[in-house]
Records
---
Amino acid sequence: MEWKSIVPLAVFIPFISTAQNKIQERPNIVVFLVDDMGWQDTSLPFWTERTQWNNLYETPNMERLANQGMMFTQAYGCSVSSPSRVSLLTGTNAARHRVTNWTLEKNKSNDDKSDVIQPPDWNINGICQTYGIAHTYQVTSLAQILKDNGYHTIHCGKAHFGAKDTPGENPYHLGFEVNIAGHAGGGLASYSGAENFGNRTDGQKSPLQAVPDLDKYWGQDIFVTEALTLEAKKALDHAQKLDQPFFLYMAHYAIHIPIQKDMRFYQKYRDKGMTEIESAYASLIEGMDKSLGDLMDYLEINGIADNTIILFMSDNGGLAATSRSSVLHTQNSPLNSGKGSAYEGGIREPMIVSWPAKVKKQSKNDEYIIIEDFFPTILEMANVKKYNPIQPVDGKSFVPLLTGEGNPSKGRKLYWNFPNVWGPSGPGIGATCSVRDGDWKLIYYYDSGKKELFNIAEDIGEVNDCSDKRTDIVKRLSKDLGQYLRRVDAQRPTFKNTGHPTLWPDEV
Amino acid sequence: MEWKSIVPLAVFIPFISTAQNKIQERPNIVVFLVDDMGWQDTSLPFWTERTQWNNLYETPNMERLANQGMMFTQAYGCSVSSPSRVSLLTGTNAARHRVTNWTLEKNKSNDDKSDVIQPPDWNINGICQTYGIAHTYQVTSLAQILKDNGYHTIHCGKAHFGAKDTPGENPYHLGFEVNIAGHAGGGLASYSGAENFGNRTDGQKSPLQAVPDLDKYWGQDIFVTEALTLEAKKALDHAQKLDQPFFLYMAHYAIHIPIQKDMRFYQKYRDKGMTEIESAYASLIEGMDKSLGDLMDYLEINGIADNTIILFMSDNGGLAATSRSSVLHTQNSPLNSGKGSAYEGGIREPMIVSWPAKVKKQSKNDEYIIIEDFFPTILEMANVKKYNPIQPVDGKSFVPLLTGEGNPSKGRKLYWNFPNVWGPSGPGIGATCSVRDGDWKLIYYYDSGKKELFNIAEDIGEVNDCSDKRTDIVKRLSKDLGQYLRRVDAQRPTFKNTGHPTLWPDEV
């Protein structure tokens, strides 16, 4: 007689049945986060009109995803990487978490030099989950809360949450149970397996941005985007054995510089008459899109697509200030400028959510949301009702937008604070803070004291500054922005010549 | 002007200073756990007399550790691996956590067949930190609590906390931030790097006990004990950069079977006239001892020895029922029997604690303690005062024994429950439960109903069963043991012929 038959069945069944109900209440969740991808870097039109960019780039799987879910046409990130990623993982606005610029090395700021202003003492070491670590923001991460609530948590790709040699450098310290290739680096030394993803094998020290963990692909003709996808699928194979729902944070290194040629797609773009570098850029996009499709195929083949939510997002605007062959600052048109800018080109992102059980297919939403909203949204999706993170949560769940049951964006204002010096110059690039209120957007420049006011609904390209005409709105929004920044204990730069802090927007 | 000079110093200093104070209150902690090491597998005498084994084996670094700390002569584990490791990581007695036998594959019991009894539905999948996983005990692990309280948590070596393809298989799921070579397997396919630690490279599936993660040493003439030590030191190099205290759980695969020759030490033992297999066994011991010494050297060289606690322990008694060339069941003499037995040979462990700040050098303690005591002890050492694990904590901190400020063992009883069928036969090996109360130890055999009573102080070899003479004590301890087991909801086997449960010790 087998031993299992002796155990009274009544002992087992209620237990397993409860567990299965709980699992069914908890969908799998995939965050598919692209790096430095602009709002127009796709064949899927997020604007009211189809643009030249939509015609150039080919992203059939983004179209497929949009076809089975909801597009968001006004989804915002921060203008650079670390602040966005930190906000996503913490629910906290960058003005509050103070990881306002990009991180890399311990106790080392990546601010560029400015003759006029000195950036504040921002959290140059990023986030961490432990106390007493200098220059970090202590948090309870989204992954940690999901893990604590029964999710199997997988990190794949770019992390960029904390500086090297600090606890936040490693996703394992932030509640992830699997980490594939995530570390302190926010860029990549090479996309190419043939180049060992930038890792040195001659005994010399590898560059800080060499991609870790993918040794098995070294020397092979494979792009990092593909290698990460293969590894993510392996992690999902294993996840399915664990009797837990999974959270896959699939954060591609693509389409960050260096703009290398993914030869699976490159020639097609050359044949369209595009330059070498623009063709290479397009090949990075299409390689990322193939990864999306491969993961969607995987979910379908494994019969878990119906119970899996996919959230597609980028961390900041497309790079338009350097490294591209065409006219600078125009690659995100109709948006003005790109990565690093307070203009829409720097912060508006392509965003799609597929949630078969709840979201209407082929739907589109024009309400604005911001990157920290992912935190409460995902926890609501996961049916995690009680959580008590160390940090305040500024984000608002956009589940009501997805289900059509409410509009949390109504009457809401969005805020940005970048008291730093990014480096390249260009439209809207500088130490700024901004507020979006309905159709209006106010931008304040800490160094010059200049203010700009745009009606985004009428002027998506932010070329008609209305600050002179609508001083009433400038005054109202300046006051609101100043109050907000002080309330969340935001930071501002200091004037180099006087050593005094720059003024808040409502002090000018 | 450097930007740091602009920031008011007053903002910084109190913060960093507080952090440093906190760090100083929190020592680094190393658990050095050996696998299947018997009480006599060392040149360091844990008995009142020096034995032949103490003369055969050479463990200079255990002597060195004892020289700087406290030896425990009556430290207990369970009689097999998983229950001990689970108790250490949870503070819970095996009778309660029900991971009573060793784990390996999901939903698969490793109980051997018996004609008489059927083991209960024990937690064959081990522990995990999430709910709804069948046949597991849900816990908050020691590593998790330490991590949540600011420790950098490193797992190196054998895990054996949960079955393959369940959440507990992987230390990353249990609060460890680094995992080197830990998985579901409790043994090892090979010690040898030249043999890839048992991993197949011919496309065939590797055995379940192939050691993971150490690919870089494949094909090299290196023992796994050495490879783990090198990797642990690298992890400590990095830990020192993180401004956190560290918890290193250094759990060697040694000295588990297969008994392979570590050629760095083997010939010396052959020259003493020992057989091939006994010399190989001795070489495994000395390889483990070298690792201990290397880590002690590391701490000293790096100036952190004074603030680092080392706890040396084994998980169960030395294997004496199979695989050795000398007379079976004698290899732990003066203790009777070995691994798998309720006798002292199966459960008494070599234990040493070095804590420079608090523990007297060259000291010895004869009070008894048990493996689940490590949990509250380590948390007390780490100055973690409030914690709220899911599981009840049965262990008692032995910090007062270390500091001489109290005796938590006084008047305390220790309990074991093994309602399983291990496999090999031998003295004290079977489905048993036991209680130790002062000098007395009662063992109850579930299948036969037999009871044995030993006075451990007078009869460490457990050869004089006093159950006939001291029926008063048998009755008292039977009652106590039965009550305890029912109180913690312990499990017992079932009789195969009737399907009825075996009797509790106080029902016979």
---
Amino acid sequence: MSLSDVRALTFDTGGTILDWHTGFKTILSETGAKHGLERNWHDIANDIRRKGLGKMLNLGKDEPPGYNFDGAHRMALEEVITENGLEAFTEEERHTIAYDAPHNFECWSDFPAVLPKLREKYMCASFTILSFRIIMDTARRNGLSWDAVFSCEAIGKYKILPEAYDTVAHYLQLEPSQICMVACHNFDLDAAKSRGYNTAFVKRPREWGNDSPPDPEPNPIHDIIVDDFPSLANALGANP
Amino acid sequence: MSLSDVRALTFDTGGTILDWHTGFKTILSETGAKHGLERNWHDIANDIRRKGLGKMLNLGKDEPPGYNFDGAHRMALEEVITENGLEAFTEEERHTIAYDAPHNFECWSDFPAVLPKLREKYMCASFTILSFRIIMDTARRNGLSWDAVFSCEAIGKYKILPEAYDTVAHYLQLEPSQICMVACHNFDLDAAKSRGYNTAFVKRPREWGNDSPPDPEPNPIHDIIVDDFPSLANALGANP
């Protein structure tokens, strides 16, 4: 396996590209303030993410998925509302937190300028457990253009099931060794690696706000380990 | 139903965006010349398309598809080789005609400048029976950026099956009345209309070269009927 064979980059998008923590924390604290509620909005934002991820990873293993990540965000919000005494939040506010906020997540500032450089050399696709609409809406908001969006919503098998990685390689008509998965999460990259992908770990120490990410240390098996996207472009020879 | 409700445009891509006729005719005549063969390459190009389409439309109706449009192009080529005494074509030449040529189709000249204008106002997705790779490769070659690529390859139900249109509306999280299907073919637009989509017929009188298209007269049920893409942008108020 050699990085010189790589033809396509597939990007985890939530977390690696999008700053979900700031997005959730901001709308939660604004909504709380309207109701005069004081809570640890930082922790609640992270809890929505944690619960949402838990509902999505490996979804479709035993039966077809019954919801997408928009549905999971809403279920996760309802749980934290109950657990944190936030029942005053109105239906409209709940929709804004669980739906509008993710569709308006801002992307990390080091990515938009690098994507076009990477696209000059590689096919660059979002490969994500987020819904198509979250990817399409956040791309439009942040001025990103993907070559394609491969949402597990269409595959019916979510990361980190092997079928998800195999299917994307099949759609790309590439051997997995011709693809590099890019993410800030070992669980995603480890799964991609086990299916034959190259892997690039891009560190996102602020993904969970002031908390350290749950698994911050890159697994040394990854082919590229970098601190940011300009460094990834350099490592891939895509920074003329 | 009103066009003012439209949020997304879904584009038939083969034929409507890409000039398959010139692409096939050029490589066929070049390959024939290498072998000193004279044939009606215009007609053979159209026959590859006709046979290919026949293998794709409604594919997946009764059982999961066993091939994508790249496979259909190759099968169609083998048929015209037999029918036209082109057995001298080598395996490499056959791959070039059936695979490389479609992945390098040029797009009609009126589209590239209009797509960014349409994207300012609408989500713009390729919604196609072509393979993901044909769309990704031709987009890169022609400088197009789609918001997403919805290939029937991932849906498993090909146009003009109703499930194809219903699934894309589901992924877009829109009512069909909030989507406008754009194509140069009545069969595609009629099927979209029957599922509640708005429809825009963009004429492509040269799609089949010197032949008139098989069904050139727009069905009057379509919401927009225009001669080219600048006119479509005008009709949709996306031409500032």
---
Amino acid sequence: MTAAATPSEDPARAERHRARMARKKALIDDRIAQAQGQAGVLLVTCGNGKGKSSSAFGMVARALGHGMKVGIVQFIKGAIATGEEQFFRRFPDEVQFHVMGEGYTWNTQDRARDIASAERAWDKACELLRDPAIGLVVLDELNIALKYQYLDLEKVLDDLAARPPMQHVVVTGRGAPPALIELADTATDMQLLKHAFASGIAAQPGIEW
Amino acid sequence: MTAAATPSEDPARAERHRARMARKKALIDDRIAQAQGQAGVLLVTCGNGKGKSSSAFGMVARALGHGMKVGIVQFIKGAIATGEEQFFRRFPDEVQFHVMGEGYTWNTQDRARDIASAERAWDKACELLRDPAIGLVVLDELNIALKYQYLDLEKVLDDLAARPPMQHVVVTGRGAPPALIELADTATDMQLLKHAFASGIAAQPGIEW
């Protein structure tokens, strides 16, 4: 995975980290004891290969099959409506689908606007992360916003750790910060073996979007 | 990825391989020329990390969002109905969902039965691979059947290469044979960074099934 640079440590930060990980351990121990191994998990998908966002949307389908409610925040908006958005909007009682911002300008244009956009998206994410009725939260391409430091990593980690005990979260995107991987229960590095783009094949509806 | 052993080469096999790859190249060139980069792609997901099957089901959601019809064959049947099966069976006009066999006995019990089961599943897959009305075919855990040599790899590769030009196929599972990766347009090795199972958390509905 492409990891963001680790910021230098300071004592307050180290203490927040310790507290967050202690909370994670206590919650997991408690949940396992009470519910035969059932627990809300934090999953992270990263790497340069295809499959990060699509695996999150596959878990949405699974969750819906089990009668759960799902919340999705997409941190990068594409130019066109995606297949996942068109499909999951069929189920407004079961899925909240939030496509936030207007796409990032990366480092080239207006960083202040990108930060404001990412913060609006995170506010929406926090609404979902405070709602125990939502069984699965997908934070699609959040890693990109963290990689570019559009969001405060410590706040993001605290908000994730403070979610309802049985709520699952999937975070996708290249460049997952090491501290997010550490907080995660499950993490997959999706490595590129080959991609159709290299043969001149365009992004395909149904496959890439 | 855990690769199956490469069988020793013989001239007939080498010629079939050459013909298959030539057909792939001709089809891709033709499709790109005619349709501005649009082409049916073969995707393979492999590796030990979480995300192989779920990424395929995310592509099903995307494809349905674009109005495509989808066919799914699951080569390993679990003991319980999965979330993906319960969910996608809501759309019988759009999704054919085939759960084949009774689960493999691995090497421990009845190999002949496993082979018969895999062959029935492949027959069903071939029906989908001959139908140009199906835009996306998911062959979930096919790699396992190939790894255990329950199916003839050369026949599988020939049938995949002979599918309708605009049809997409996703093949999932550990142990993808190198010749399948070679035929693929896009391949991702999903590497395990960490898994909740290691913390004592059980497989979660909505996440693993």
---
Amino acid sequence: MYIVLVYDVSQEENGARRWSRIFKICKKYLTHIQNSVFEGELSKGQLAQLQKELKEYIDKELDSVIIFKSRQEKWLDKEFWGRKDDLTSFIL
Amino acid sequence: MYIVLVYDVSQEENGARRWSRIFKICKKYLTHIQNSVFEGELSKGQLAQLQKELKEYIDKELDSVIIFKSRQEKWLDKEFWGRKDDLTSFIL
């Protein structure tokens, strides 16, 4: 299925480290399209694995991760208003 | 159609002011679900109007706005991993 993942990691409680961990885990499974936004095609098993890995780092009181799932990518159109690039090289 | 809007506003060139303007415009049309993420049901006309309003403030070199469009909300499942709340009251 086609996944869009957006995350917001609090800066509290060593947030920069959590942000970096979460970024790296997402990058293993998905394509980075905006500062804290990833997308990609995952199987149910891969999504479950991603969730398992992320749950070790997400602070349930402070951080937010939202997953949008569409059975097919074609059901979801995408438009860029403004800058469009892969920021990975600036971040890692 | 059902819209998910995610934005990333650079802190450069008076970014905090742009961020706040963009936030307020999005809030007029959509529901705030995460720091820089909005969702909602819009007509084509409303989406065009939102784009027109945002274009006045988006810096095309610095800022990124991504729009995901689905013809029907039911084609897009949503999951929250971690915190789930409306942050508006903390921001405005």
